[in-house]
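Many introductory courses stop at the sequence. We go one step further.
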Amino acid sequence: MKFTKELVDTLADKLLIGLTEEENKLVLDEFDIIDQNMELITKIPDIEKVEPMTHTLDDFEYVLRSDEKEESIPIEKLLQNCKSHEGREIEVPKVVG
């Protein structure tokens, strides 16, 4: 499938993002680069015989650490860093208008 200006505009409208002419051209240019790279991939000899990777790192391992109980900092000491608090509750600046 070839991406066209009309197709990009239609998809952008469905996503409710609307694109300017400049943005549309940028998207089309990006898809052209992707298409060129896909063409290069198909020219690799015997590529169809290669099994797809499920993970980028073949030797990927992970080890879960055991949970260890740690001493907590007393709440009174933490509240010393606050400008204003009432009991254990602190006042924070309003961030939503």
